[in-house]
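Page 37, top half.
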Amino acid sequence: MTGGGPPARRLSSYHVEAAIAATHGSAPSVDDTDWPAIVSLFDTLMNVAPSPVVELNRAIAISESDGAERGLAALHKITNPERLSEYPFYTAAMGELELRRGDEAAAAAHFRAALAVVRNAAERRHLEKRLQHCAE
């Protein structure tokens, strides 16, 4: 016979994703976002539901918290990056971080790689704008 209390609940990816969304939503601006808390939540999400996309989002949060160099290092440590080869946001993130570092040539190469795998016109327009920014 079991106890009469409520069933035990385990932490799910939905709980962690909701906490990430709440942390983003409670910030008055991107600059005021509690990026260390977001990184910590992505660390938790990696334990609950690991995936290359979670690692990518964690790396982006690291870049916001600790700078482009640390973000790029986290991007380069992604497990199974080949699973992201058709995901434009992986190479686009590299492009953004290289641009922040001031390496426009590397950024442009990453944006071109992302353009090669875009899935819709909106992604294409955004990446074309980012690529133009590299030439300025």
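Page 37, bottom half:
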Amino acid sequence: MKMFTRAIVRTPGKSMVDGISGSGLGKPDFSLALEQHHQYVKALTECGLDVTILDADERFPDSVFVEDVALLTDRCAIITSPGAESRRGEEKAIRKTIEKIYTGVEEIVYPGTVEAGDIMMVNEHYYIGLSERTNPAGARQLVSILQSYGFTGSLVSLETMLHLKSGVSYLENNNMLVYGEMILKKEFSGFNKIVVPDKEGYSANSVWINGRVLIPEGYPETTASIESLGYKAVLLNMSEFRKLDGGLSCMSLRF
């Protein structure tokens, strides 16, 4: 079981109100988003993480979703290649920060695309979702890099999910939250599945950190299922980030 010690987050910029969105929930309230982000950082700290907070980058409305632009492992860092055109360049903006921490920094080369919201770590194996944001060329590059560092990787085709972790979250101890198309994926047949009901689908993106699970507020059935397994639940209001199709995992790089 991997224990995390550090995290990187990026403060939302005012430009976030123009971020990519397919939610139909309207534009986010910037002031409320700042407060929700503050509570998120506080929760990471209470999970035992040393949190690096990067300044807002107004050039990129979606840059608060810092998880997508890098994969940080205990052996290397991999700079990704965003599949959304408006996000290309975010990966360059974070590279200097990562190079201060890692000596081994690899990268996905365009036209291969990978967004790390499509990557789920289970021990030393990485599941990689093939989505509108992560293409086969990028995924193959990622598997090759992971294998060179002694990890393994496999591909999971997505039909409806924006990102792999929109519908599945690994909670350690062989427990996995699954929702929608992820419920019947053969790739996850060996796990103890906690099925997220349709009405609580957004909560499928919850995050295990050092024995606690960060869960979006307002999803009582998912919360009860997680707590029944002995985890301490940490509830966070994510309303303004949900408007931008963003979830809990999207807002930090944990390593």
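Margin note: The longest strand covers residues 125-130.
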